[in-house]
[Ribosomal protein bS18]-alanine N-acetyltransferase
Amino acid sequence: MMTIIRLMTDRDIEQVSKIENETFSMPWSKDAFREFLKRKDTIYIVAEVNNEIVGYCGLWNIVQEGNINNFAVNKQYRKKHIGFEMLTKLIEIGNEQRINAYTLEVRQSNVAAIRLYHKIGFREDGIRKNFYESPREDAIIMWYR
């Protein structure tokens, strides 16, 4: 299985939106993704296998800190290192744009994601109470410096 990690384009939004809707209880709209792709302070990438988008992630560059705000892999492609490859590439691109720290929030119950973030080098640095809705849950704040 050959995975291509590349910058997201407008053509990817349909497939990205499908993964978004299957993954999150409060998914972003297609228009939200279109708006973020137009901005100069964002980086969004996709993972592609056999011309199919199987994952995506993105960040906002806020004063040289990358706020990773969206990250998902199609259920059929989880546990195949695609998330690791995407996040590693996102950080690599961010570093080229002089981002020197990265942060994200993750549901406390999302053990698989937390394990992945630790593997990359993220560390827990606090809790956001009731950050998530549907279902309501605290978020763990993690940083990679």
Notes: The mean pLDDT is 95.
